[in-house]
Design a protein that fits this description.
By secondary structure, this protein is an alpha+beta fold. The chain has a single domain, classed as L-fuculose-1-phosphate Aldolase (3-Layer(aba) Sandwich), CATH 3.40.225. Helices cover about 40% and strands about 15% of the residues. The protein has a seven-stranded mixed beta sheet with strand order 3-2-1-4-7-6-5, with helices on both faces. Strand 6 and strand 7 form a beta hairpin. It is globular. The protein starts with a helix and ends with a helix. About 45% of the residues are buried. The protein binds zinc ion. The site of zinc ion has 5 residues, from loops.
């Protein structure tokens, strides 16, 4: 297998895994930076994540234009990916999701914070991108480079940014780690809501705890990745 084929297989697996884990449904996407050219990335044509196959992957430049004359319809929100790859040389994979537990934290003044060790990558308070603050009234989608760049700026050096009235983005140095972060962002949001509903005070991981937990979990992400691939029929 070439490196490109390996990364393409990871993108396919990531799409199917996150669909099975209810982080993606008919919408959302997973991409990877092209292993042979850092100024390009791999992203499916406009298709439901659970159905994505390697042959669906298109190659885009960092302006989010398809290359090689590929005329298949792309995702409207491909600019999320292109602008994050441009802004973050350390990022090699991006997930965009509308998963339900996260949405309240993108709408509320209550910030998403790491409630357990699995989501240590959420260290601190997760930032929220409000497209209206930059672009006025829109249909909420990230449809062009300027909107993608504003989202990437809000992300900063973090692994996750929420999007008001829309969803979130998770990114990482590899597809398995970006998938891990997307899944545990959804889990954290659900658990945090339950902790708040108990009515007492909530103690989150402090920044140092979160960073230590995140560093540990990065070393073992291959374990859930192997399981998740098996669960979607990929080895
Ligand atoms: Zn979206």
């Amino acid at each position: 297998m070439t490196r490109r084929e390996e990364v393409a297989a990871d993108v396919v697996a990531g799409n199917r895994i996150l669909a099975r884990l209810n982080v993606l449904d008919g919408f959302g996407h997973v991409s990877a930076r092209h292993p042979d050219d850092p100024n390009r990335f791999l992203l499916s044509r406009s298709r439901a994540p659970e159905l994505v196959e390697a042959s669906d992957l298109m190659v885009f430049d960092l302006d989010s234009n398809p290359v090689d004359g590929d005329a298949r319809p792309p995702y409207l929100e491909r600019f999320i990916h292109g602008e994050i790859y441009r802004a973050r040389p350390d990022v090699n994979a991006v997930v965009h999701s509308h998963s339900p537990s996260v949405i309240p934290f993108a709408a509320s003044s209550v910030r998403l914070r790491p409630i357990f060790h699995m989501s240590g990558f959420l260290a601190g308070e997760t930032r929220v991108f409000d497209i209206r603050a930059h672009f006025g009234c829109t249909d909420m989608l990230v449809r062009n480079r300027a909107q993608g760049a504003a989202l990437a700026a809000e992300l900063g050096e973090a692994g996750v940014v929420l999007m008001r009235g829309h969803g979130f983005v998770a990114c990482a140095k590899s597809v398995p780690l970006a998938v891990y972060r997307a899944y545990y962002t959804e889990q954290n949001a659900s658990l945090q809501r339950q902790a708040i509903a108990l009515g007492g005070s909530v103690t989150y991981l402090d920044t140092d705890e979160a960073r230590l937990a995140a560093a540990t979990n990065e070393t073992v992400v291959a374990r859930p990745w192997e399981l998740w691939k098996r669960q979607v029929g990929l080895d």
